[in-house]
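Q: I have 90 residues here and want to know how they pack in 3D. Can you give me a structure?
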Amino acid sequence: MNYSDHASVRMQQRAIPALIVELVLRFGTAEPAGNGTSKLYLDKRARRRVKSFAGPLAKAIESHLDVYVVISDSGNVVTTAYRHERIHRH
């Protein structure tokens, strides 16, 4: 996965591990975010799939799962952030 410079800086500033971003990209639910981008996040169903995939590691990463990832239409990661509010579906 290609990360923009902005995404790399935001991941470091917000202490979002690359492992969590990869889990969101693999298991996350996508919603349109405008301008050809999509917002991926882990809803209840996706969290269950992550916990099943992670096994014993699931408890350790649970506190990091409230993130979203914005990707461009070409598949590059634009930015990442922690979710503080519910994502409203369109």
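Q: Anything worth noting?
A: The mean pLDDT is 90. Strands lie at 29-34, 37-41, 67-71, 77-82.
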